Amino acid sequence: MNDTVSFGYEDVAPEEKAGRVGAVFSNVARKYDVMNDAMSVGMHRLWKDKFVRRVRPQPGEQILDMAGGTGDIAFRMEEAGASITVSDINQDMLDVGIERAMERGIDTLVWSRQNAEELAFPDRIFDAYTIAFGIRNVTHIDKALAEAFRVLKYGGRFFCLEFSTTEWPGFKEAYDAYSHHLVPRIGKAIAGDADSYRYLIESIRRFPPMPEFERMIREAGFKHTKVEPIMGGLVAIHSGWKV
User: Fold this and answer.
1) I need a surface site. Which of 32, 100, 139, 167 has the fewest CB within 10 A?
2) Which residues carry a binding-site annotation for S-adenosyl-L-methionine?
3) Which residues form a coiled coil (predicted)?
């Protein structure tokens, strides 16, 4: 029985990972979105726009945006008139999102500190569950998926936007070199923190490949699962339905 989990390229005790991941996101919270722009040359905005188009939030729907701290996904979905609960395990990330919402004059979002593996919400309450660039940071992915399934209504939909491994020849090697060597330097220059961004890159490498993660979504109970690779799989939109 494996009693360790991945923290980047390290294997650590499960009880240690949550604290270390929490420290990473507390360190980068204030510069998180600036760094996303720098690391992806702004492309993360296009990925998130596409993701929300796939979710297709509707007026009056109840949607849980998990690991949504800074509000990037919630702000996009709120425009459609859905009722959004933004949850994150990290209060520093939530605080940034609340400040951004105030700056935008958005007061319709609910902000709730939650552990994706142990949600405090009752069964079958949400029409959709979204998580963008967050599920690879939970300690037990299977528990987070089980909780997503539990809180969704029958007919509810699950959507996950996450980094994966691009299958484009040439680009994969170039991206690996860029991410491992340049991203930590960018993190040092912009956020004053190379180690946190080194972890974030390493966590991508340790995340299950697209077919394996789709299998995990099915094993959690979801049907009609689908994977939509972006840029050859550098990023992927995973989806499934609770039926």
Assistant:
1) 167
2) 70, 88, 115-116
3) none
Angle at Cα 141 formed by Cα 34 and Cα 65, nearest 5°? Answer: 50
Write down the pLDDT at residue 1.
46
12: in domain: no
pLDDT score for 2? 58
Is 68 within a domain?
Answer: yes
pLDDT in tens, 150-178: 999 999 999 999 988 888 888 878 877 87
Annotated binding site: 70, 88, 115-116
Count CB atoms within 10 A of the CB of residue 77: 25
Range 208-225 burial, b when 16+ CB lie within 10 A, else e: eebeebbebbeebbbeeb
Structure tokens belonging to residue 171? 């680009």
Overall domain count for the chain: 1
- Distance from C-alpha of 216 to C-alpha of 136, rounded to nearest angstrom: 13
Asked if residue 3 belongs to a domain, the reply is: no
**The dihedral of CA 63, 217, 44, 97: what is its sign?**
positive
